[in-house]
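Dear colleagues,

For the upcoming journal club I promised to circulate an example of a predicted protein-ligand complex. I picked one with adenosine-5'-triphosphate because it came up in last month's discussion. The inputs are reproduced below in full, followed by the predicted structure.
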Amino acid sequence: MSVTQADIPTAVDTITRAKSATPVEAVMRAENLRKEYPGGDGPVVALRHVSLEVRPGEFVGVTGPSGSGKTTLLGILGGLNPPTSGRVVVDGMDIYRLHPERLARFRNEYVGFVFQEFQLIPYLTALQNVMLPLVAAGVPRKRQQEMAEEALARVGLADRRHRLPHQLSGGEQQRVAIARAVVNRPPIVLADEPTGALDSRTGRQILDLFAALNGDGITLVMVTHHADNLRYASRVLSMRDGTLAGEMGSP
Ligand SMILES: Nc1ncnc2c1ncn2[C@@H]1O[C@H](COP(=O)(O)OP(=O)(O)OP(=O)(O)O)[C@@H](O)[C@H]1O
Ligand SMILES: [Mg+2]
């Protein structure tokens, strides 16, 4: 087949289209992670040969027995815990090669964290707790309050905003923690056993809230022991002895 002049624009179009039709960029990519912690009898290998991709809008569940490396993996993905080797790339940034200040900014702008034990500041009100990431980001004071109020309303706690953590139930405290995690509108939320300290009914409410946030476009990675919690996940990664043992697909 001969190519004529008239064919050329079409060919260029095709190339351009092929480029824009490449698979959606991973929001987060981990490459060959290894993590060793110092131990009495030599290093403990908490992760080895772990590679994964998280794509925009996914709700990834991570499960596996105690000690399999789930928390370690989440901390590495979120910029909290450097791997011994391997790398984490988010939005084109090799995050552990960033200057420490840039890494701190990455954590503030790109990831929200939710932990099992809520980790609210006990002497700050719900509203003040939710404002904290905005203070760190240098958002103007008035805007801080508006955004924090919006985030608290999103988790159904507008009327509890002036309470201290100990004046809230466990489920409410976790909702404040979730509001704090999303107030800065990060693209990714990482949650480590977010229902672990809650009774099953309250835990389900928290999962419903995560599902709703995921529906709003937030990408989620949630670590959990409980198979029940995984039914909202679009994909489930299973860990064993520091490796990704497999992908279980949609539950
Ligand atoms: N700071 C640390 N120093 C030394 N060893 C650690 C440290 N953190 C974790 N480990 C070890 O690394 C391994 C993985 O721990 P990790 O906390 O990631 O597991 P996990 O899957 O989150 O467990 P769990 O379900 O109990 O929370 C374990 O053997 C643990 O003892
Ligand atoms: Mg853990």
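Two points we might discuss: The mean pLDDT is 89. The helical segments are 7-20, 70-77, 100-110, 126-137, 141-154, 170-182, 200-215.

See you all on Thursday,
B. R.
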